[in-house]
Amino acid sequence: MATSFNPKSLVESAWKIIPFFQSRDIHATVLLYTKELGFTIGSEEPHFASLFAGPKAASNIYFSLCREESEFRASSAMIALGAEQHEALYAGLLARARDAGTGSGLSAEPTETFEIVQEIRDEEWGFRQFSIKDRDGNLITFFRFLEGSNGEELWAGN
C-alpha cells in the first residue's frame, strides 16, 4: 500500500524565502541597498551579492550579475516593516529624492540609485505601502499592515 504524499505538511516547515534578482553592476547594487536602503551585506563577490535586513536576516535578497542585456529580467519583492519604521523610511527616501532634484520620482527623472514609483498609500487589501525601483528596474514594495501586528514584538526583545 502506497503512503500518502502530503506536500502541504512538508512546506509548512518553511522559515524563509529569498528572492533572486539580477544586477548589471553588483558593487553599485550593494552600495544602493546598504547606503540608501539600510540593508547589511551578507556577502559580495564580483558576480553575486547577498543583502539582508531584519531579525535573523528575515528579509534577504540575492543578486547575480547579468552582463547580457537580452537576458536581463527585473524582479520584484515585498518587504514588511514595522509601522513607525515604514513611515520613517518613506519620509527619508522621499527627502533624498527631493534633495537629488527629482521630486517624488513619479514625474521626474530618477536618482542615480532608486526611483519612487508608487507613493505611500493605503490599499483596499489592508496594506499601507510604497514602491521603489532600483537602478536595474527591480521593484521593492515596502508595506505594513493597516491592522494587526507589524512585527514590533520582534524589536521589543519578546
Automatic annotation (TrEMBL):
It comes from the Eukaryota. Residues 23-142 form the Glyoxalase/fosfomycin resistance/dioxygenase domain. It holds the Pfam family Glyoxalase. Coiled coil: none annotated. This is Glyoxalase/fosfomycin resistance/dioxygenase domain-containing protein.
